[in-house]
Amino acid sequence: MYHPFELVRCMELEREEDRPQDLLDSLPVELLIKVLRDQDLPVFTLAECRSVCKKWKEIIDGPELRNKIWNKSVIFYDACIDNTAYFCFRDRWIRRNITFGPKQVVAADGGLLCFNELLSTEYVMYNPVEDKFLTLNVPLEIDGEHTVIHGMLKYMVVGLVVDQSAKHFKLVLGGNLVPDRRRSLIYDSTTCTWSWLINPFPTLLNSMKVKRHSGRGRCVVCNGCMYWLVWDPRVMITALLIFDLREETWNVLAEEVMEDKLGALQIVAYEGCVCLLAMDWTDVELDRRSYDGIFLCHPMVRRMDASLIRRTRNLWVMEDGRAIRIYASGGSDVFFVFEEEGEDLEVAKYWAEIDMIIFLPEPPFRVAHEFRSWGLLPDIIHDPWCAIIPAPGVNAEQEWITQQQRHL
């Protein structure tokens, strides 16, 4: 015989066992993947589906579906003034609130973005697919030598390289100013340590008053090396700075220029090479964009594909050509950004898979029509744009933090 209390409890258990599971949880993973992958859902719908539950988020961020949202290469805009980032995939701009701001993007590679505030010792790594960030702080002293002067970290260039298979990365701060010279720092995520590089920073750049803009200060990673374009407007010297990641050594090529101005020479990683695009505009010839300088003697450096650049003429009706900025992330896709005082901002993409140049949707933000000066130092001008190839996953050995927001 059951005690009345035990009988009631048994009835409750029977009802719970007979209760059907939540419909979403009961769907087989294979069926979910097939529905979400094969129904040609809009990017916005897939992005919203990530917020349904943890199971759906894992499926959409997985290898079967993530490229439908993070479509191979995406253009990124850093609206650092209001702590907001924008990503354009194919047919939609998606906004992300950046909770670790105010900081500006200073490097990108392998699906990671690196943020820093000028002269600060704090760097933040951010994976937009996972919406997670990792904070790194440069020690004030390494091996008995100070890394900062009066509390300020004064580096010349910063570069990031990511190992996609292991999700580890290295962050290089080149030309960090110490009391009597410039040295370089490197952070290795495999050991979670900062250290000084033994190889000295190039002597030529020690004496240069380096100005960084138009993609020149942004690092390009290609074939095991990092590349930067820097220049000194006082002596009209442009330099291609190279760091060999395997040997941990520096090299530099330099050339004199007759005239240099914003956007005159741009650098991108494109189809496995370091590509240079000249934007030498004159009243006589509006579209002389072929670079033929000394940097081409390096085996990994070549001119940007001239036929592709010529096709941008067709983007604007009744135009002989426009000054554009180009962004690429190592593959075959290229982004073109046109913004000029008094004109609407326009962004286009060369989509290699279909061999077409298409306009992206109108950006949902307003931008300054010149690169933003960073703080009180006019020699450092921030470029808010970059191209990345997103990648899911972060290294579980590190303390990545998920941002507190539900939507992409």
UniProtKB/TrEMBL annotation:
<dbReference type="InterPro" id="IPR050796">
    <property type="entry name" value="SCF_F-box_component"/>
</dbReference>
<dbReference type="Pfam" id="PF12937">
    <property type="entry name" value="F-box-like"/>
</dbReference>
<protein>
    <recommendedName>
        <fullName>F-box domain-containing protein</fullName>
    </recommendedName>
</protein>
<dbReference type="InterPro" id="IPR036047">
    <property type="entry name" value="F-box-like_dom_sf"/>
</dbReference>
<dbReference type="InterPro" id="IPR001810">
    <property type="entry name" value="F-box_dom"/>
</dbReference>
<feature type="domain" description="F-box">
    <location>
        <begin position="21"/>
        <end position="73"/>
    </location>
</feature>
